[in-house]
């Protein structure tokens, strides 16, 4: 399973489809779905370790999320997740149907092995997997 992340908000067009995608990606279902009527959004929350991801979908065409998606499209640049075993996690994600951008993990910054999941499979968000190099 994916590990610790910072709290991130991700704009999505279709919350149901996004929930399916993130359920597969994270290996768990959202723990809460809530409408924020004053902001014209429906939210869905996922936990990853002690951190959370908030998916936001517009409930009205004049909402801030609707305008954001119209201007920039879905998502943010990327989300980095800590993993204990990058090779096992890449295999799990491949089995779930995600496209992996790296044939093999590579050395990244801060003494990490890294690999990426293509943003087309996760609502426009580039996902980075990071494993601490201990050898």
From TrEMBL:
Q: What are the protein's UniProt keywords? A: Lyase, Metal-binding
Q: Which domain of life is it from?
A: Bacteria
Its name, as the record gives it, is Lactoylglutathione lyase and related lyases
GO MF term (any one): metal ion binding
- Species of the source: Nonlabens tegetincola
**Family (UniProt):** Belongs to the methylmalonyl-CoA epimerase family.
Q: Which InterPro entries match?
A: Glyas_Bleomycin-R_OHBP_Dase, MeMalonyl-CoA_epimerase, MMCE/EMCE_epimerase, VOC_core
Q: Which PROSITE patterns match?
A: VOC
Q: Which PANTHER family match?
A: METHYLMALONYL-COA EPIMERASE, METHYLMALONYL-COA EPIMERASE, MITOCHONDRIAL
Q: Which CDD domains match?
A: MMCE (cd07249)
Q: Name one GO biological process term.
A: L-methylmalonyl-CoA metabolic process
